[in-house]
Specification:
Number of helices: 15
CATH superfamily of the largest domain: Alpha-D-Glucose-1,6-Bisphosphate, subunit A, domain 3
CATH architecture of the largest domain: 3-Layer(aba) Sandwich
Distance between the termini: 48 Å
Shape: globular
Number of strands: 22
Strand content: 15-25%
Length: about 500
């Protein structure tokens, strides 16, 4: 029976089980990886890229990476391309090989923050990461025979991460422009938590050579079993760990990366988290410097306090869009093409794409911009916390995820959203937001509620996520109770998490 490669598609990535565990057979078999890479080679050929062109290959710290890399390289060579083996590397660095190494494309072997037994493939061309439609084409090509070539390609070994790290060092030196130009971070103490992914280089190859103290950094050694905590800036345990380490080390800043460094967050010297809305606020402040009145594209779950900060405090325009890093980046590209000044697309998950950096979601680049800002405000005797002091944090905030128990979950979810919107217009206490671009956001102006909820359909999974915020004590539960009464009509929706919260 032919492999259904579509089941391995996750947005714009390929992801699946790569290490057999109890009850989870391997999906990313050697044959599957080979076929999908041949599909990418065919995709490049269809774009007019000639045989023997160079394609970079990198991987994160996962235990299945070496096995998968063998098949990726074999497939590229069989299809007539030169495979440039970059070894352990970050995902953003793999795109940058198309800039610095003149590679026509790149393959990164990673499954981001997912458990050790998962892995996946991310494909890049000189235009950036492939989008969903491109990946569909690659999957179609993968199901066909590999293209015949008169001559097989060869393999080159090349270290790119040192070149990538130097890019970031040069950027800090140039923008800080300190009296000691080569050591602009002298006197600063910055720790890094790499979660045993590939982000440890940022401490030893970026910060330390520029004079920063890095004592107290943790989990810098790559370990594909991720023994300490999930390498995920959205994970509460991970954020608590880096916060504790930052305070213990008496550091000026604590940085945390996900496994492959396309996402990041940080904590200030007090150990207070700068993630989610706070991270978006700080990145927006940086991006809008020199871009007065610019537009910041974010995902749909951002708060009303963030909108006020971007629009009123910073003088920008907040464009709340859809969840999914590729969605916000594509909207950024679209707006800029229309003449809208849009310097940043950012998700609350930590994906941040600056226009000045090839519209690439790069956690290390984001942290470099923040480190530069730390140095600049430090010269004025301020900390990063002062920059986002005007951002209003809600009194209460909760996310609840409800499972949809039917096969056609997308249609079912859309029905719930449409019904909810219809009901809202007939309820005097509910006010539908005027910028609904994903799901439905409803405001409650009553002083006992004083908040809102967003109900949307997950990008990939049979899940309805609900985000609730309120500035009234107990307001979030009041909103949840109203929503629960409405949702009881939908029998395929598992309301247990909502009921547990209400208890």
């Amino acid at each position: 029976m032919a492999t259904d490669y579509k089941k391995l598609k996750s947005g714009t990535d390929i992801r699946g089980v790569a290490v057999e565990t109890e009850g989870s057979p391997v999906q990313l078999t050697d044959e599957t990886v080979y076929a999908l890479t041949c599909g990418f080679a065919r995709f490049l050929a269809e774009k007019g890229i000639t045989p023997m062109s160079r394609v970079a290959v990198g991987h994160d710290s996962r235990i299945s990476a070496e096995r998968i890399k063998v098949q990726v390289i074999r497939a590229l060579c069989d299809c007539g391309f030169t495979a440039v083996d970059c070894g352990l590397a970050s995902t953003p660095a793999m795109f940058m090989t198309t800039v610095d190494f003149d590679c026509c494309g790149a393959v990164q072997i990673t499954a981001s923050h997912h458990p050790y037994d998962r892995n996946g493939l991310k494909f890049f061309t000189k235009e950036g990461g492939v989008d969903s439609g491109d990946l569909d084409a690659i999957i179609v090509f993968a199901a066909e025979d590999a293209p015949a070539t008169a001559e097989k390609g060869t393999v080159e070994a090349a270290e790119y991460m040192p070149i990538y790290a130097k890019r970031l060092r040069d950027m800090i030196c140039r923008e800080v422009n300190a009296a000691d130009y080569e050591h602009p971070l002298k006197g600063y103490h910055i720790i890094v938590d790499a979660g045993n992914g590939v982000g440890g280089f940022y401490a030893t190859e970026v910060l330390q050579p520029l004079g920063a103290g890095i004592a107290g950094s943790q989990f810098l050694e790559p370990d594909g079993m991720f023994p300490n905590h999930a390498p995920n800036p959205e994970n509460a345990e991970a954020m608590a760990s880096v916060s504790e380490a930052t305070v213990k080390a008496k550091a000026d800043l604590g940085i945390i990366f996900d496994t492959d460094v396309d996402r990041a967050s940080c904590v200030d010297k007090h150990g207070k988290e700068i993630n989610r809305n706070r991270l978006v606020a700080l990145a927006s402040l940086i991006a809008l410097e020199g871009n007065d009145g610019g537009t910041i594209v974010t995902d749909s779950v951002t708060s009303t306090g963030l909108t006020a900060f971007i629009n009123d405090t910073l003088g920008g325009k907040h464009y709340r869009y859809m969840r999914g890093y590729r969605n916000v980046i594509n909207k950024q590209l679209e707006l800029n093409a229309k003449g809208v000044n849009c310097p940043l697309a950012i998700e609350t998950s930590g994906h941040a794409a600056f226009r000045e950096n090839y519209h690439l979601d790069d956690g290390a680049y984001l942290m470099t911009k923040i480190v530069i800002k730390l140095s600049q405000v430090g010269q004025e005797g301020k900390g990063l916390d002062a920059l986002i002091a005007d951002l209003h944090d809600p009194l209460e905030a909760i996310e609840i995820r409800l499972k949809i128990g039917c096969d056609d979950f997308k249609s079912y979810g859309k029905t719930i959203i449409a019904s909810l919107q219809f009901a809202a217009y007939g309820n005097a206490g509910w006010r539908v937001a005027d910028d609904n671009r994903e799901g439905i956001r409803i405001f409650f102006d009553d002083s006992q509620y004083n908040g809102w909820f967003l109900l949307r359909l997950s990008v990939h999974d049979p899940i309805i996520p609900i985000n609730i915020e309120s500035d009234a004590p107990g307001g979030a539960k009041k909103i949840a109770a109203d929503l629960h009464r409405f949702l009881t009509a939908f029998g395929c929706l598992d309301l247990a998490p909502l009921r547990d919260y209400l208890k």
